[in-house]
Each structure stands twice: as C-alpha cells, then as structure tokens.
Amino acid sequence: MRTPLSDRLGIEYAVFGFTPFPAVAAAISRAGGLGVLGAVRYGDAEDLAKDLDWMDAHCGGKPYGVDVVMPAKKVEGVTVEQVEAMIPEGHRDFVRAQLAKYGVPALPEGERGGWRITGWMEEVARSHVDVALEHPVKLLASALGSPPPDVVERAHAAGMLVAALAGSARHAQRHAEAGIDVIVAQGHEAGGHTGEIGTMVLVPEIVAAVHPLPVLAAGGIGTGAQVAAGLALGAQGAWLGSIWLTVTESDLASPVLRRKLLAAGSGDTVRSRALTGKPARQLRTEWTDAWESEESPGTLPMPLQGLLVAEALSRIQTYETPELIGTPVGQIVGQMNEERPVAAVMDELTRGFEQAVARLGRIASAEGEQA
Question: Does the keyword Oxidoreductase apply (predicted)?
C-alpha cells in the first residue's frame, strides 16, 4: 500500500488517519500511516502545543500531520463575544426548550461549554498554525477551503505539504490554483462537512481535474478493500476519520456515545446544519431531528450556529443524554461494530488491501487467459 505520496512523506502505508485524539494520531503514525490531529477543538493554542509536544515524544520518530479549520470568509476585528451578540433570542429560546424537554441539567457553576467552537474563528485557527509550525509536522491540512496564501507560504517554507478537502472538482481546482499540494476528495458518505457527490464519482473527477497533484480518497472508507477501490480510482492514498472514533486509544469520554456508535447502522447518520451551520454528516438523534421540525427557527450560518449550540452540546455530552448525544461520523459507522486498538485496524486495512488487490489480479489474469 505504497504510493509516490506515501514515499514522499516517509510513511509505510498510504493511510491518512484524521482524529481529534493525540493518542490515536500517534498510534496511527507508529503503525505506519500518517496520524493527522484535528485542531478545531483547541480553543487555547497552549493546549494544542502541549499535545503536539506529547506527540513528538510518542510517535516513535514517525511523521504526523495537523488539521486546522480556517473559514473561507475572513472577518477582521470581531471578537467571539461580538459574534455571539448576533444570535437571535428566538434561537436561544429554541435551544433552551430542547434542553428542558429532555431534562438536561446546567453545567456546574463556573464551567462554560463551547470548548470546540472557537477553533472555527480565524484568529484561533491562525494560532493553531503558529503552533504547528513550531513542531515537525509533515502535513498541514485545511478542512474548509484553501488556507490563506501566507499560511501556505509559511508551511512550505517549513518543509510541510499542505492539503485541503474538496467536495467537487471545481473546489479541487481552486485548491490547485492556490498552491495546495494534496487534495482530499471527500465524498458525500464522509463524516463531518461534506458535499453532494459520492466518493465513487468524486475521486476520479478530482484526479482528472488536478492532475498531476496527488489526491486522497475520503468518505465511506473503513476497510482494505475500500482503500484499494480508492487507489483504483486514481487516488494516492485514503483519508479515514470515522473508523478511529471507537478504537481503544480514543478519548471518547462518553460510554453512552461509544455504545451508540458501535450499535449504529450505515443508515443512522444524517447531513445536518445543526452542528455548525454547514451541512455535516453526524449520528441522527432527536437533537438533529428537532432542527428539521416545524417548530425549528432554522439554523444560523457559520459560525453563529456553532456558537449558539456549543454550551448545549457540552451539557448533552457532560450528562450523556441518550436521546440527544451524537457526534460527526460517516456512513462507515455501520462497520464499526467492536472496539479494537489502532494497530488491529491498520493490520486489517493492510491485509484487506492485499486480498482485494490479489482478487483483482486473479480476475485480470483469468480475463487475459480467456482472451
């Protein structure tokens, strides 16, 4: 499972594992892939710096990456408090009503939720980039469009490759024009923010649109055979995120949420704007259903929606409200049926890839003999 891109990055397998958990990212890198730590949950850049220091000490000298979120539209001179003041009171009332309906208690006095939403603000994302540049990061990825030109230049000057996610060939071409090195073709099946085009259609479209830039296949990939399919479509690797949520190294604090993920089928996700204001695939819950109901005031644009629901989601997670608790996850959740260590997942990916390639080789040989 080696490609020119994996060789360029010095990794054994062309598996790129996105995760919000440092222990999982480090384990992916140690197992031969490239662990990519998601930075959006870090409101404080010092916390990110501490976790990257930890990864430096626990990746076994293997390379790793960092994923930041930099909104495409820049808003200068605006604080989080000023943005929050733009949220209509009717939307706040709706959130309060949903929490009251399910009896979700308030957070303990002095504790404020919303730790994961400030990362959507550009000033915070830039602080994440500053921290990443101080560490031996090999890949800087951007989840919402191309990073600003100065960020791309700084990353390149530090010897990093820059990746960006794309949901259409048009988006991918814009990334290429912006000097991005690696395009992540993220299909409709993926967890988190996704577009309308399925992975099987999207990957070859983007490969053709940005040739000779390397492309990673993402969305609906959680087995070795699916990795092989991505490479057969022209990708130089696979970008996997959801599959790592239930590994034993993950810091998924809620036993209730872990059980829900392990029990979910591939049809138990929904694309909803309830989390951030942009369509994001996540577990379907009574919370996501509420935002689609007739009583809903409708979701707000990013970053207002994220700021609106941040504390509510913290309360739901803190008290593990079963009807409401969820998380971004892709349709591959239907194959996440047991807890396994990262090494076991990587072993299954590589063995499954080899078996799929061998199976195709036998088919090709048989066809050759018939011809």
Answer: yes
Domain that holds residue 357: 1-71+121-251+343-371
Three-class HEC string of 94-112 = HHHHHHHHCCCCCCCCCCC
The pTM for the full model equals: 0.92
Encode 177-208: b = buried (16+ Cβ within 10 Å), e = exposed: ebebbbbbbbbbbbbbbbbebebbebbbbbbe
Are 157 and 262 in the same domain? no
Q: What is the pLDDT of residues 190-236, one digit of tens each?
A: 999 999 999 999 999 999 999 999 999 999 999 999 999 999 999 99
Using a pLDDT cut of 70, give the percent of the chain over it.
93
Show the tokens assigned to 144. 């919402």
Q: Are 55 and 32 in contact (CB under 8 A)?
A: no
328 and 231 belong to one structural domain: no
CATH of the domain at 184: 3.20.20.70
Q: Same domain, yes or no, for 187 and 96?
A: no
Q: Tell which residue, 8, 192, 181, has the closest CA to residue 116.
A: 192
Task: Give the C-alpha separation, 252 to 179, whole Å.
Answer: 35
Residue pair 28/244 in contact by the 8 Å Cβ criterion? yes
Helix, strand, coil tally for the chain in percent (to 5): 45, 15, 40
